[in-house]
Amino acid sequence: MTPYAQRSTEELTALRDKLQEEYEKIKAQGLTFNMSRGKPSPAQLDISEGLLSAVSSTDECFAEDGTDCRNYGEPAGIYEARKLMGDMAGAPAENVIVCGNASLPIMFDTVARSFTHGVCGSTPWSKLDKVKFLCPVPGYDRHFAVTEFFGVEMINIPMTETGPDMDMVEELVSKDEAIKGIWCVPKYSNPQGISYSDETVRRFAALKPAAEDFRIFWDNAYGVHHLYDEESKQDKILNILEECEKAGNPDMVYIFVSTSKISFAGAGIAAIASSKKNIDFIKKYMGFQTIGHDKMNQLRHVRFFKNFDGIKEQMKKHAALLRPNFETVGNALERDLGGLEIGSWIMPRGGYFIHFESLNGCAKEIVKMAKEAGLVMTEAGATYPYHKDPNDSSIRIAPSMSTPAELEKASEIFTLCVRIASINKLLAERA
Amino acid sequence: MTPYAQRSTEELTALRDKLQEEYEKIKAQGLTFNMSRGKPSPAQLDISEGLLSAVSSTDECFAEDGTDCRNYGEPAGIYEARKLMGDMAGAPAENVIVCGNASLPIMFDTVARSFTHGVCGSTPWSKLDKVKFLCPVPGYDRHFAVTEFFGVEMINIPMTETGPDMDMVEELVSKDEAIKGIWCVPKYSNPQGISYSDETVRRFAALKPAAEDFRIFWDNAYGVHHLYDEESKQDKILNILEECEKAGNPDMVYIFVSTSKISFAGAGIAAIASSKKNIDFIKKYMGFQTIGHDKMNQLRHVRFFKNFDGIKEQMKKHAALLRPNFETVGNALERDLGGLEIGSWIMPRGGYFIHFESLNGCAKEIVKMAKEAGLVMTEAGATYPYHKDPNDSSIRIAPSMSTPAELEKASEIFTLCVRIASINKLLAERA
Lengths: 431, 431
Description:
The structure is a homodimer.
Chain A: H1 9-28, E1 33-34, H2 42-46, H3 79-89, E2 96-98, H4 104-117, E3 132-137, H5 141-149, E4 153-160, E5 163-164, H6 166-175, E6 179-184, H7 198-205, E7 215-219, H8 240-246, E8 253-258, E9 270-273, H9 276-289, H10 295-305, H11 308-337, E10 343-345, E11 354-358, H12 363-372, E12 375-376, E13 394-397, H13 404-430
Parallel strand pairs in A: 1-12, 3-4, 3-6, 6-7, 7-8
Antiparallel strand pairs in A: 2-9, 4-5, 8-9, 10-11, 11-13
Helix pairs in contact in A: 1-13, 4-5, 7-8, 11-13, 12-13
């Protein structure tokens, strides 16, 4: 295919008019599709039906050490749940606290706690004039929303194919004491599906932050969320906790994991893993906050999955459902946009999203056009702090909640909008 | 019985020696009893076994409005759970947010939120020089621990038989803008089992606080926790939300309720109820904190209890188990200490505790002696802010976790310690 930019104005105009005609026809059909929702489909949730009866009588309510999971106690969680989540996080059970039904509240609490009580003895952030976070972009909107809510100044860090731009991270972190954290989704990142290279992880572990209370918020949300069963097609990342220890920075990272996209999205279990020093500090806080999280749900998960291998087996079932969806969208992008040089994307090997990078200044227009034709996409800009995408080029595609047939049609609409908006932009530049 | 204070020194000395001999004999037996744990017994937890299978297949996972409870969403909780908890709190479903497994984290969050984000637009408490809370004493140690953890200055308010000393509350609240809240357990209070009179509730509702962001933290932890089934033997309190509205203070109260001591102590559901303005403010905060609490557990509770009547029926089963325990302790206190004028107690008609008020300066000694004889009591002073009981006279007795036979023996030890410590005090005063 000849790239659009190399085609004549006449050719582009004629093509645009033809595409616009197609678009109007589709619009008239009153279709409705949705590629905005990054949540598991009902079929994926069905995989965990066994969880519902994993603990169904009184004599099954006891943990291995005899703890009555129905009653108060064990604020760090029952041992076997700490072990299970620790295996997922790459941390020993002792370094894990299992909390409630999702990891977002743990991250929120971690920020809130730093504001009210500091970090392992540091000045509470609420007493500081300025607190800054580094935000690899595009990234997860709910991360950025948490720090925005606490008045944190967020600094964009461009993502590369191996993770955040580490030159920039190293420089900023080492010279600015106001920088207290960085949001990371190290594996199958949201939304690009990028996994951090070994070098990136090692450079993270070796950071020399100006702030003693600087922490890496390592949200390993998609740690086991491969799309392919073959190990050769699965991304692997280094164990950040071990790397931090080796680098003499044992306390620099918080790891967050959850079963939200493994068992039930709204009723999973979630955990934080970190160094003993950090975990002890968090436990002290939690000692005031709760008499203990829901141990019955912890027990259900342990009984249902048995161990980390059980989780890996479960993920193969998710992959079987998700793979056709991702491939449908990927194939459509390649078929309709390949070679046109009006956008780029990386086909991820895991996670929940495909990220489309349009020509600068086109993302909002594409999302708007799609919506008018009945296809709801994630709001353009949502993947940037303050919802401000400086290039207006980032579009997040979430293929999990639809069928391949729906995605086929939805992708057609999407690529049509991309082509029209791109031609309009190219023509406007020439005018 | 002749009060000890009216007996001669010789008589008291002889009695003390005789009691001390009994005490040494008991000590030598190496018994172990525990009256410190305010949690439901295993038999009480067994009552809720049906909860374990209340939702056991995929097609049962949907709320009345079709919401898939397995997935993300509904941060305020599913409607039927809001209705159920609202009925318990005395508030319409719309004014209720159902959260996680216990009310303590909701209270903690409410304080934390006020520190970081203020109250409905007020200055965040972390920006103020001083924040004070009123603390009716004796009270619940975990309430006081939360405010202490946030550096709040706590002011003791003596409890009377009709609730906190309202003259004092009214005066302090109206003149000191730094006073931002008061901790209340309005029904079957912890630890005294006192229920606030109608006048007390009305005076609360009619407070004229100097601080616009003053709030009543109304922890209705024992709202349905009667010991007797006959309505004539049950305490009733006025609906604080309605009274506040009538008095022109619609936003002044947060109500906290939970099923912790109704279903599973560690795996119940909990809620906050308040005015629309407060609930909207809290919802905004929660929108950043969570994608939604565990709706599966909400659904389990709704299916198991069906409605508020179902909860009331369940409470009769709890009462049947708790009543003999309370009566055993109450009878022993009356039998061994009645008329001696060395302590006082109110026999509660509900809740989880019996409070014993010893002679001044004796509580620590009694608890210490009991421990040495094998009976663990709640630490003396625990019911006061900073663990400082100015009179050293407050002892909390928790009869739920033991059998009547155990409580019979434990009470004997307890009253023996009370008698010895009291005589020693009286003799020391005469010396």
